[in-house]
Amino acid sequence: MSGTSLRNRVAIVGVGESDIGKVPGMTGLGLNAQAAKRALDDAGLKPPDIDGLLTAYSFTEPYFMLGSVLCEYLGLQPRFNASLVVGGATPAVMLKHAAEAIVAGQAEVVLVTAGENRATGQSRDQAVAALTAVGHPYFEQPYGSSIPGFYAMIARRHMLEYGTTREQMAEVAATTRRHALLHPNAHMKAPLTREQVLSAKPIADPLGMLDCCLISDAGGAFIVTSAERAADLRAKPAYLLGIGEFHTHEHIMCAPSLTEFGATRSGAAAYRMAGLGPADIDVAELYDCFSVVPIIEAEELGLCPRGEGGRYWLDGRAAIGGGAVPVNTHGGMLSHAHAGAAGGLFGIVEAVRQLRGGLGARQVEGAEVALVHNEGGILSSHCTMLLGKDKA
Amino acid sequence: MAETLPSPVVNADSAPYWQGAREGRLLIRRCDACGKTHFMPRHLCPACWSADLRWVEATGRGTVHSFTVIRRAPLAAFAPRVPYVVALIDLEEGPRMMANILGEDALDTAIGDAVAVCFEDRGEGAAVPQFRRAGGRG
User: Domain A135-213+242-357+364-388 class?
Assistant: First the structure.
Protein backbone atom coordinates (compact mmCIF):
# COMPACT_ATOMS: atom_id res chain seq x y z
CA MET A 1 0.00 0.00 0.00
CA SER A 2 1.03 3.56 -0.60
CA GLY A 3 2.00 5.98 2.13
CA THR A 4 0.19 8.91 3.69
CA SER A 5 -3.18 9.63 2.14
CA LEU A 6 -3.98 13.17 1.08
CA ARG A 7 -7.65 12.65 1.93
CA ASN A 8 -9.14 15.46 4.02
CA ARG A 9 -5.69 16.96 4.66
CA VAL A 10 -5.84 20.13 2.56
CA ALA A 11 -8.41 22.49 1.09
CA ILE A 12 -8.70 25.08 -1.64
CA VAL A 13 -9.50 28.30 0.17
CA GLY A 14 -9.37 30.88 -2.58
CA VAL A 15 -9.98 30.98 -6.31
CA GLY A 16 -9.54 33.66 -8.95
CA GLU A 17 -9.86 34.28 -12.66
CA SER A 18 -8.22 37.08 -14.58
CA ASP A 19 -10.11 39.07 -17.17
CA ILE A 20 -10.79 36.59 -19.98
CA GLY A 21 -11.08 36.85 -23.75
CA LYS A 22 -9.01 39.25 -25.77
CA VAL A 23 -7.20 41.27 -23.14
CA PRO A 24 -4.63 43.27 -25.11
CA GLY A 25 -3.46 45.35 -22.16
CA MET A 26 -2.10 42.39 -20.22
CA THR A 27 0.99 40.19 -20.42
CA GLY A 28 0.88 36.52 -19.56
CA LEU A 29 2.55 37.21 -16.23
CA GLY A 30 0.09 40.04 -15.65
CA LEU A 31 -2.84 37.67 -16.18
CA ASN A 32 -1.32 35.26 -13.63
CA ALA A 33 -0.82 38.13 -11.20
CA GLN A 34 -4.37 39.41 -11.59
CA ALA A 35 -5.80 35.94 -11.01
CA ALA A 36 -3.48 35.41 -8.03
CA LYS A 37 -4.54 38.68 -6.42
CA ARG A 38 -8.20 37.78 -6.85
CA ALA A 39 -7.63 34.30 -5.37
CA LEU A 40 -5.72 35.75 -2.43
CA ASP A 41 -8.45 38.34 -1.79
CA ASP A 42 -11.03 35.57 -2.02
CA ALA A 43 -9.16 33.64 0.68
CA GLY A 44 -8.76 36.72 2.86
CA LEU A 45 -4.98 36.23 2.92
CA LYS A 46 -2.06 38.59 2.28
CA PRO A 47 1.03 38.07 0.08
CA PRO A 48 3.33 37.35 3.06
CA ASP A 49 1.09 34.38 3.93
CA ILE A 50 2.19 32.61 0.74
CA ASP A 51 5.16 30.32 1.31
CA GLY A 52 4.82 28.14 -1.76
CA LEU A 53 4.16 28.74 -5.45
CA LEU A 54 3.49 26.38 -8.32
CA THR A 55 2.91 27.39 -11.91
CA ALA A 56 3.01 25.79 -15.34
CA TYR A 57 4.57 26.94 -18.62
CA SER A 58 4.16 29.58 -21.30
CA PHE A 59 4.16 29.32 -25.09
CA THR A 60 3.88 33.07 -25.55
CA GLU A 61 6.55 34.48 -23.22
CA PRO A 62 10.15 33.31 -23.36
CA TYR A 63 10.82 32.64 -19.68
CA PHE A 64 12.89 29.77 -18.38
CA MET A 65 12.19 28.80 -14.70
CA LEU A 66 8.68 30.20 -14.90
CA GLY A 67 7.95 29.51 -11.23
CA SER A 68 10.91 31.60 -10.11
CA VAL A 69 10.06 34.24 -12.71
CA LEU A 70 6.52 34.52 -11.37
CA CYS A 71 7.73 34.70 -7.74
CA GLU A 72 10.06 37.51 -8.77
CA TYR A 73 7.23 39.33 -10.61
CA LEU A 74 4.95 38.99 -7.57
CA GLY A 75 7.65 39.94 -5.05
CA LEU A 76 7.47 36.54 -3.34
CA GLN A 77 10.34 34.63 -1.71
CA PRO A 78 8.79 31.22 -1.01
CA ARG A 79 10.34 28.11 0.52
CA PHE A 80 8.60 25.89 -2.05
CA ASN A 81 8.48 26.65 -5.79
CA ALA A 82 8.40 24.88 -9.14
CA SER A 83 7.07 25.10 -12.65
CA LEU A 84 5.54 21.85 -13.84
CA VAL A 85 4.92 20.70 -17.39
CA VAL A 86 2.49 17.86 -17.92
CA GLY A 87 0.46 19.76 -20.49
CA GLY A 88 -3.19 20.20 -19.70
CA ALA A 89 -2.88 17.87 -16.71
CA THR A 90 -0.62 20.39 -14.99
CA PRO A 91 -3.17 22.23 -12.79
CA ALA A 92 -4.51 19.07 -11.16
CA VAL A 93 -1.00 17.71 -10.76
CA MET A 94 0.00 21.04 -9.18
CA LEU A 95 -2.77 20.61 -6.61
CA LYS A 96 -1.40 17.15 -5.84
CA HIS A 97 2.13 18.48 -5.43
CA ALA A 98 0.86 21.36 -3.29
CA ALA A 99 -1.05 18.93 -1.07
CA GLU A 100 2.00 16.68 -0.74
CA ALA A 101 4.18 19.66 0.21
CA ILE A 102 1.68 20.87 2.80
CA VAL A 103 1.22 17.42 4.33
CA ALA A 104 5.01 17.00 4.45
CA GLY A 105 5.41 20.35 6.18
CA GLN A 106 7.28 21.90 3.28
CA ALA A 107 4.77 24.71 2.81
CA GLU A 108 1.64 26.01 4.50
CA VAL A 109 -0.05 28.27 1.94
CA VAL A 110 0.58 27.45 -1.71
CA LEU A 111 -0.43 29.72 -4.58
CA VAL A 112 -1.12 27.76 -7.78
CA THR A 113 -1.44 29.73 -11.02
CA ALA A 114 -1.45 29.28 -14.76
CA GLY A 115 -2.20 31.57 -17.65
CA GLU A 116 -1.06 32.96 -20.95
CA ASN A 117 -1.93 35.75 -23.35
CA ARG A 118 -2.53 33.31 -26.17
CA ALA A 119 -5.15 35.41 -27.97
CA THR A 120 -3.23 38.65 -28.29
CA GLY A 121 0.35 37.64 -27.43
CA GLN A 122 0.79 35.77 -30.71
CA SER A 123 -0.84 35.50 -34.10
CA ARG A 124 -3.27 32.69 -34.76
CA ASP A 125 -0.71 31.10 -37.11
CA GLN A 126 1.95 31.33 -34.40
CA ALA A 127 -0.43 29.73 -31.94
CA VAL A 128 -1.13 26.81 -34.24
CA ALA A 129 2.53 26.41 -35.15
CA ALA A 130 3.62 26.50 -31.50
CA LEU A 131 1.12 23.82 -30.58
CA THR A 132 2.35 21.67 -33.43
CA ALA A 133 5.42 21.20 -31.27
CA VAL A 134 3.33 18.84 -29.15
CA GLY A 135 3.72 16.35 -32.01
CA HIS A 136 6.89 14.29 -32.07
CA PRO A 137 9.52 16.51 -33.70
CA TYR A 138 11.14 13.72 -35.72
CA PHE A 139 8.45 11.11 -36.35
CA GLU A 140 5.15 13.06 -36.40
CA GLN A 141 5.86 16.65 -37.41
CA PRO A 142 7.37 15.70 -40.81
CA TYR A 143 3.86 14.58 -41.78
CA GLY A 144 2.09 17.90 -41.24
CA SER A 145 0.15 16.52 -38.31
CA SER A 146 -1.67 18.86 -35.93
CA ILE A 147 -3.18 18.59 -32.48
CA PRO A 148 -6.73 18.66 -33.88
CA GLY A 149 -5.55 15.93 -36.26
CA PHE A 150 -4.37 13.74 -33.37
CA TYR A 151 -7.69 14.09 -31.55
CA ALA A 152 -9.53 13.57 -34.84
CA MET A 153 -7.88 10.16 -35.16
CA ILE A 154 -9.09 9.34 -31.63
CA ALA A 155 -12.59 10.59 -32.48
CA ARG A 156 -12.72 8.49 -35.64
CA ARG A 157 -11.70 5.37 -33.74
CA HIS A 158 -14.37 6.06 -31.09
CA MET A 159 -16.96 6.49 -33.85
CA LEU A 160 -15.95 3.15 -35.37
CA GLU A 161 -15.86 1.14 -32.16
CA TYR A 162 -18.84 2.64 -30.32
CA GLY A 163 -20.99 4.29 -32.96
CA THR A 164 -20.31 7.76 -31.57
CA THR A 165 -21.62 10.41 -33.96
CA ARG A 166 -20.71 13.91 -35.10
CA GLU A 167 -24.02 15.09 -33.63
CA GLN A 168 -23.04 13.76 -30.21
CA MET A 169 -19.71 15.57 -30.36
CA ALA A 170 -21.39 18.75 -31.54
CA GLU A 171 -23.74 18.56 -28.57
CA VAL A 172 -20.74 18.79 -26.25
CA ALA A 173 -19.95 22.20 -27.71
CA ALA A 174 -23.61 23.28 -27.71
CA THR A 175 -24.31 22.17 -24.12
CA THR A 176 -21.19 23.78 -22.71
CA ARG A 177 -21.97 26.99 -24.60
CA ARG A 178 -25.33 27.13 -22.83
CA HIS A 179 -23.46 26.76 -19.55
CA ALA A 180 -20.98 29.48 -20.49
CA LEU A 181 -23.82 31.90 -21.13
CA LEU A 182 -24.62 31.57 -17.40
CA HIS A 183 -21.04 32.53 -16.44
CA PRO A 184 -20.28 36.26 -16.18
CA ASN A 185 -16.60 35.91 -17.15
CA ALA A 186 -16.80 33.37 -20.00
CA HIS A 187 -14.97 34.19 -23.22
CA MET A 188 -17.93 33.29 -25.45
CA LYS A 189 -21.12 35.32 -25.08
CA ALA A 190 -23.30 34.18 -28.01
CA PRO A 191 -25.51 31.08 -28.22
CA LEU A 192 -24.31 28.12 -30.26
CA THR A 193 -26.43 25.39 -31.81
CA ARG A 194 -25.47 21.86 -32.72
CA GLU A 195 -26.15 22.72 -36.35
CA GLN A 196 -23.65 25.58 -36.22
CA VAL A 197 -21.01 23.23 -34.84
CA LEU A 198 -21.70 20.69 -37.59
CA SER A 199 -21.45 23.28 -40.35
CA ALA A 200 -18.34 25.05 -39.04
CA LYS A 201 -15.16 25.20 -41.08
CA PRO A 202 -13.56 21.73 -41.22
CA ILE A 203 -10.16 21.50 -39.50
CA ALA A 204 -9.21 17.83 -39.33
CA ASP A 205 -11.95 15.34 -40.21
CA PRO A 206 -14.16 14.61 -38.36
CA LEU A 207 -13.48 17.74 -36.27
CA GLY A 208 -14.54 21.23 -37.28
CA MET A 209 -13.52 24.61 -35.91
CA LEU A 210 -16.19 24.58 -33.18
CA ASP A 211 -15.15 21.14 -31.95
CA CYS A 212 -11.84 22.79 -31.00
CA CYS A 213 -11.14 24.75 -27.83
CA LEU A 214 -10.76 28.51 -27.72
CA ILE A 215 -7.58 30.54 -27.86
CA SER A 216 -7.95 33.03 -25.02
CA ASP A 217 -6.04 35.49 -22.92
CA ALA A 218 -6.65 34.13 -19.46
CA GLY A 219 -5.09 33.40 -16.10
CA GLY A 220 -6.43 31.35 -13.21
CA ALA A 221 -5.27 30.79 -9.65
CA PHE A 222 -6.17 28.99 -6.46
CA ILE A 223 -4.83 28.89 -2.91
CA VAL A 224 -4.23 25.63 -1.07
CA THR A 225 -3.64 25.25 2.64
CA SER A 226 -4.02 22.68 5.38
CA ALA A 227 -7.51 21.63 6.44
CA GLU A 228 -6.74 23.02 9.93
CA ARG A 229 -5.83 26.47 8.66
CA ALA A 230 -8.71 26.39 6.15
CA ALA A 231 -11.18 26.23 9.02
CA ASP A 232 -10.07 29.69 10.22
CA LEU A 233 -10.32 31.42 6.86
CA ARG A 234 -13.04 33.56 5.36
CA ALA A 235 -14.05 31.46 2.35
CA LYS A 236 -15.86 28.14 2.53
CA PRO A 237 -13.13 25.54 1.99
CA ALA A 238 -13.30 22.88 -0.71
CA TYR A 239 -11.60 19.85 0.79
CA LEU A 240 -9.42 17.55 -1.27
CA LEU A 241 -11.01 14.12 -0.84
CA GLY A 242 -9.00 12.12 -3.34
CA ILE A 243 -6.54 12.62 -6.16
CA GLY A 244 -4.63 10.37 -8.54
CA GLU A 245 -2.62 10.57 -11.73
CA PHE A 246 -1.60 8.18 -14.48
CA HIS A 247 0.64 8.56 -17.51
CA THR A 248 0.75 6.23 -20.50
CA HIS A 249 2.61 8.02 -23.31
CA GLU A 250 3.23 11.44 -24.76
CA HIS A 251 2.91 11.07 -28.55
CA ILE A 252 -0.18 9.52 -30.10
CA MET A 253 1.90 7.12 -32.18
CA CYS A 254 2.98 5.53 -28.87
CA ALA A 255 -0.45 5.53 -27.20
CA PRO A 256 -1.31 2.01 -26.00
CA SER A 257 -4.86 2.47 -27.32
CA LEU A 258 -6.88 5.14 -29.11
CA THR A 259 -10.02 4.30 -27.13
CA GLU A 260 -8.79 3.46 -23.62
CA PHE A 261 -6.69 5.97 -21.74
CA GLY A 262 -5.17 6.68 -18.35
CA ALA A 263 -8.20 8.50 -16.95
CA THR A 264 -9.62 5.18 -15.79
CA ARG A 265 -6.55 4.63 -13.63
CA SER A 266 -6.22 8.21 -12.36
CA GLY A 267 -9.94 8.22 -11.58
CA ALA A 268 -9.77 4.89 -9.76
CA ALA A 269 -6.94 6.21 -7.60
CA ALA A 270 -8.90 9.35 -6.74
CA TYR A 271 -12.08 7.40 -5.93
CA ARG A 272 -10.11 4.92 -3.81
CA MET A 273 -8.42 7.66 -1.78
CA ALA A 274 -11.75 9.37 -1.18
CA GLY A 275 -13.63 6.17 -0.44
CA LEU A 276 -16.22 7.33 -2.99
CA GLY A 277 -17.44 6.24 -6.40
CA PRO A 278 -19.04 7.73 -9.51
CA ALA A 279 -22.48 7.56 -7.87
CA ASP A 280 -21.30 10.08 -5.26
CA ILE A 281 -20.40 12.78 -7.80
CA ASP A 282 -22.70 15.80 -8.03
CA VAL A 283 -20.85 17.83 -10.66
CA ALA A 284 -17.90 17.12 -12.97
CA GLU A 285 -15.48 19.48 -14.69
CA LEU A 286 -13.77 17.51 -17.45
CA TYR A 287 -10.99 18.47 -19.81
CA ASP A 288 -12.45 19.44 -23.18
CA CYS A 289 -9.73 20.59 -25.55
CA PHE A 290 -11.81 18.90 -28.28
CA SER A 291 -15.45 17.87 -28.22
CA VAL A 292 -14.70 14.15 -28.24
CA VAL A 293 -12.59 14.33 -25.08
CA PRO A 294 -15.30 14.79 -22.42
CA ILE A 295 -17.22 12.00 -24.13
CA ILE A 296 -14.30 9.64 -23.52
CA GLU A 297 -13.65 10.99 -20.02
CA ALA A 298 -17.29 10.58 -18.98
CA GLU A 299 -16.86 6.89 -19.80
CA GLU A 300 -13.44 6.45 -18.24
CA LEU A 301 -14.46 8.17 -15.00
CA GLY A 302 -17.62 6.12 -14.65
CA LEU A 303 -20.30 8.76 -15.30
CA CYS A 304 -21.65 6.36 -17.94
CA PRO A 305 -20.70 2.94 -19.32
CA ARG A 306 -17.96 2.56 -21.93
CA GLY A 307 -19.20 3.56 -25.36
CA GLU A 308 -22.14 5.61 -24.06
CA GLY A 309 -20.34 8.92 -23.63
CA GLY A 310 -21.81 10.33 -26.82
CA ARG A 311 -25.34 9.52 -25.72
CA TYR A 312 -24.64 10.98 -22.26
CA TRP A 313 -24.17 14.34 -23.95
CA LEU A 314 -26.79 14.07 -26.70
CA ASP A 315 -29.48 12.97 -24.22
CA GLY A 316 -28.85 16.08 -22.14
CA ARG A 317 -27.54 14.26 -19.11
CA ALA A 318 -24.41 16.47 -19.03
CA ALA A 319 -26.50 19.63 -18.86
CA ILE A 320 -27.22 21.51 -15.65
CA GLY A 321 -30.57 20.14 -14.46
CA GLY A 322 -30.28 17.21 -16.88
CA GLY A 323 -30.94 14.62 -14.21
CA ALA A 324 -27.42 13.14 -14.10
CA VAL A 325 -23.99 14.60 -13.33
CA PRO A 326 -23.71 17.99 -15.06
CA VAL A 327 -20.39 18.51 -16.84
CA ASN A 328 -18.42 21.69 -17.45
CA THR A 329 -20.85 24.02 -15.76
CA HIS A 330 -18.62 27.03 -16.53
CA GLY A 331 -18.47 26.28 -20.25
CA GLY A 332 -15.12 24.51 -20.29
CA MET A 333 -12.33 25.21 -22.71
CA LEU A 334 -14.75 25.15 -25.64
CA SER A 335 -16.64 28.21 -24.35
CA HIS A 336 -15.27 29.62 -21.07
CA ALA A 337 -11.53 29.96 -21.78
CA HIS A 338 -8.46 28.16 -22.94
CA ALA A 339 -4.98 29.59 -22.42
CA GLY A 340 -2.39 26.88 -21.87
CA ALA A 341 -2.59 25.23 -18.50
CA ALA A 342 -5.17 27.77 -17.35
CA GLY A 343 -7.81 25.87 -19.34
CA GLY A 344 -7.92 22.95 -16.96
CA LEU A 345 -7.36 25.17 -13.94
CA PHE A 346 -10.71 26.88 -14.53
CA GLY A 347 -12.37 23.50 -14.03
CA ILE A 348 -10.92 23.48 -10.52
CA VAL A 349 -12.05 27.07 -9.92
CA GLU A 350 -15.57 26.16 -11.06
CA ALA A 351 -15.71 23.03 -8.91
CA VAL A 352 -14.83 25.09 -5.82
CA ARG A 353 -17.51 27.64 -6.67
CA GLN A 354 -20.13 24.94 -7.22
CA LEU A 355 -19.33 23.46 -3.79
CA ARG A 356 -19.63 26.89 -2.15
CA GLY A 357 -23.03 27.38 -3.78
CA GLY A 358 -24.99 30.46 -4.73
CA LEU A 359 -24.26 30.51 -8.47
CA GLY A 360 -27.84 31.23 -9.51
CA ALA A 361 -28.97 29.53 -12.72
CA ARG A 362 -25.53 27.92 -13.06
CA GLN A 363 -25.70 26.28 -9.66
CA VAL A 364 -25.94 22.51 -9.47
CA GLU A 365 -28.44 22.06 -6.66
CA GLY A 366 -27.04 20.33 -3.61
CA ALA A 367 -23.50 20.01 -4.99
CA GLU A 368 -21.43 18.36 -2.25
CA VAL A 369 -18.83 16.38 -4.19
CA ALA A 370 -17.16 17.60 -7.40
CA LEU A 371 -14.88 15.71 -9.75
CA VAL A 372 -12.26 17.51 -11.84
CA HIS A 373 -10.23 15.79 -14.53
CA ASN A 374 -7.27 17.32 -16.36
CA GLU A 375 -5.41 15.63 -19.20
CA GLY A 376 -2.29 16.65 -21.05
CA GLY A 377 -0.70 15.83 -24.37
CA ILE A 378 -2.86 13.58 -26.52
CA LEU A 379 -4.82 12.01 -23.66
CA SER A 380 -1.33 11.16 -22.40
CA SER A 381 -1.12 12.45 -18.81
CA HIS A 382 -4.12 12.28 -16.53
CA CYS A 383 -4.98 13.63 -13.09
CA THR A 384 -8.36 13.29 -11.41
CA MET A 385 -9.43 14.93 -8.15
CA LEU A 386 -12.48 14.80 -5.96
CA LEU A 387 -13.30 17.92 -3.96
CA GLY A 388 -15.88 18.09 -1.19
CA LYS A 389 -17.96 20.72 0.56
CA ASP A 390 -17.24 18.62 3.65
CA LYS A 391 -14.53 16.13 4.51
CA ALA A 392 -15.08 12.58 3.30
CA MET B 1 7.74 31.02 -52.83
CA ALA B 2 6.39 27.95 -51.11
CA GLU B 3 8.28 26.67 -48.10
CA THR B 4 9.75 23.21 -48.56
CA LEU B 5 8.51 20.24 -46.60
CA PRO B 6 10.63 19.46 -43.55
CA SER B 7 13.70 17.26 -43.97
CA PRO B 8 14.38 14.44 -41.52
CA VAL B 9 16.28 15.37 -38.38
CA VAL B 10 18.96 12.75 -37.83
CA ASN B 11 20.29 11.93 -34.38
CA ALA B 12 22.19 9.11 -32.72
CA ASP B 13 19.05 7.07 -32.10
CA SER B 14 17.70 7.42 -35.61
CA ALA B 15 20.67 7.69 -38.03
CA PRO B 16 20.30 4.13 -39.45
CA TYR B 17 16.53 4.65 -39.79
CA TRP B 18 16.97 7.72 -41.96
CA GLN B 19 19.84 6.15 -43.88
CA GLY B 20 17.49 3.24 -44.60
CA ALA B 21 14.85 5.65 -45.86
CA ARG B 22 17.42 7.14 -48.27
CA GLU B 23 17.92 3.62 -49.60
CA GLY B 24 14.20 2.87 -49.83
CA ARG B 25 14.14 0.56 -46.82
CA LEU B 26 11.91 0.83 -43.73
CA LEU B 27 14.03 -0.16 -40.74
CA ILE B 28 12.68 -0.87 -37.28
CA ARG B 29 14.31 -1.99 -34.04
CA ARG B 30 14.02 -5.55 -32.73
CA CYS B 31 15.15 -6.60 -29.27
CA ASP B 32 17.37 -9.70 -29.19
CA ALA B 33 16.54 -10.24 -25.51
CA CYS B 34 12.72 -10.32 -25.65
CA GLY B 35 12.12 -10.52 -29.39
CA LYS B 36 9.77 -7.51 -29.50
CA THR B 37 9.96 -4.87 -32.22
CA HIS B 38 9.29 -1.21 -31.55
CA PHE B 39 8.82 1.99 -33.48
CA MET B 40 10.59 5.20 -32.77
CA PRO B 41 14.13 3.98 -32.47
CA ARG B 42 15.56 4.08 -28.98
CA HIS B 43 18.75 3.29 -27.09
CA LEU B 44 17.00 0.43 -25.30
CA CYS B 45 13.96 -1.79 -25.66
CA PRO B 46 10.88 -0.13 -24.07
CA ALA B 47 9.48 -3.58 -23.23
CA CYS B 48 12.43 -5.10 -21.32
CA TRP B 49 15.13 -2.38 -21.19
CA SER B 50 17.70 -4.53 -22.94
CA ALA B 51 20.12 -2.53 -25.06
CA ASP B 52 20.70 -5.62 -27.19
CA LEU B 53 18.85 -4.31 -30.24
CA ARG B 54 19.19 -4.87 -33.94
CA TRP B 55 17.83 -3.12 -37.02
CA VAL B 56 15.53 -5.22 -39.18
CA GLU B 57 13.89 -4.33 -42.44
CA ALA B 58 10.11 -4.24 -42.21
CA THR B 59 8.03 -5.65 -45.04
CA GLY B 60 6.46 -2.24 -45.42
CA ARG B 61 2.99 -3.73 -45.32
CA GLY B 62 0.51 -2.47 -42.76
CA THR B 63 -3.06 -1.44 -42.02
CA VAL B 64 -4.62 1.90 -41.18
CA HIS B 65 -5.48 2.01 -37.47
CA SER B 66 -6.96 5.50 -37.71
CA PHE B 67 -6.57 8.59 -39.86
CA THR B 68 -7.67 12.16 -40.37
CA VAL B 69 -7.93 14.47 -43.34
CA ILE B 70 -6.11 17.69 -42.50
CA ARG B 71 -8.08 20.66 -43.85
CA ARG B 72 -6.06 23.36 -42.11
CA ALA B 73 -2.30 22.88 -42.22
CA PRO B 74 -0.42 23.59 -38.99
CA LEU B 75 2.63 24.86 -40.87
CA ALA B 76 2.84 26.95 -44.04
CA ALA B 77 4.92 24.30 -45.78
CA PHE B 78 1.99 21.90 -45.75
CA ALA B 79 -0.66 24.39 -46.89
CA PRO B 80 -0.33 23.57 -50.62
CA ARG B 81 -0.91 19.91 -49.81
CA VAL B 82 -4.31 20.45 -48.11
CA PRO B 83 -6.42 18.33 -47.96
CA TYR B 84 -4.08 15.50 -46.98
CA VAL B 85 -4.28 12.34 -44.93
CA VAL B 86 -2.37 11.75 -41.70
CA ALA B 87 -2.66 8.17 -40.51
CA LEU B 88 -1.47 5.78 -37.84
CA ILE B 89 -0.22 2.64 -39.54
CA ASP B 90 0.04 -0.73 -37.79
CA LEU B 91 3.00 -2.45 -39.41
CA GLU B 92 2.81 -6.17 -40.12
CA GLU B 93 5.60 -6.63 -37.55
CA GLY B 94 3.49 -5.02 -34.82
CA PRO B 95 4.72 -1.49 -34.18
CA ARG B 96 2.61 1.55 -35.01
CA MET B 97 3.92 4.61 -36.85
CA MET B 98 2.59 7.85 -38.31
CA ALA B 99 2.73 8.78 -41.98
CA ASN B 100 0.73 10.37 -44.75
CA ILE B 101 -1.29 8.28 -47.14
CA LEU B 102 -0.19 9.39 -50.60
CA GLY B 103 -1.66 8.70 -54.02
CA GLU B 104 -4.66 9.68 -56.13
CA ASP B 105 -7.05 7.71 -53.91
CA ALA B 106 -5.65 8.87 -50.57
CA LEU B 107 -8.84 10.72 -49.63
CA ASP B 108 -10.74 7.42 -49.91
CA THR B 109 -8.74 6.02 -46.97
CA ALA B 110 -10.71 4.04 -44.39
CA ILE B 111 -9.76 2.40 -41.11
CA GLY B 112 -8.50 -1.12 -41.80
CA ASP B 113 -7.18 -0.36 -45.27
CA ALA B 114 -4.13 -2.32 -46.34
CA VAL B 115 -1.23 0.01 -47.12
CA ALA B 116 2.31 -0.35 -48.42
CA VAL B 117 5.33 1.80 -47.71
CA CYS B 118 6.78 4.20 -50.24
CA PHE B 119 9.37 6.92 -49.83
CA GLU B 120 8.96 10.63 -50.38
CA ASP B 121 11.90 12.77 -51.39
CA ARG B 122 12.61 15.58 -48.94
CA GLY B 123 15.62 17.08 -50.71
CA GLU B 124 19.33 16.28 -51.08
CA GLY B 125 18.68 12.55 -51.13
CA ALA B 126 16.79 12.54 -47.86
CA ALA B 127 13.46 10.73 -47.77
CA VAL B 128 10.64 10.01 -45.33
CA PRO B 129 8.65 6.77 -45.24
CA GLN B 130 5.09 7.25 -46.51
CA PHE B 131 2.29 4.85 -47.43
CA ARG B 132 -0.09 4.19 -50.29
CA ARG B 133 -3.33 2.25 -50.26
CA ALA B 134 -2.56 -1.29 -51.37
CA GLY B 135 -6.08 -2.53 -52.08
CA GLY B 136 -8.12 -4.63 -49.70
CA ARG B 137 -8.56 -4.56 -45.99
CA GLY B 138 -5.98 -5.84 -43.53
Answer: alpha beta
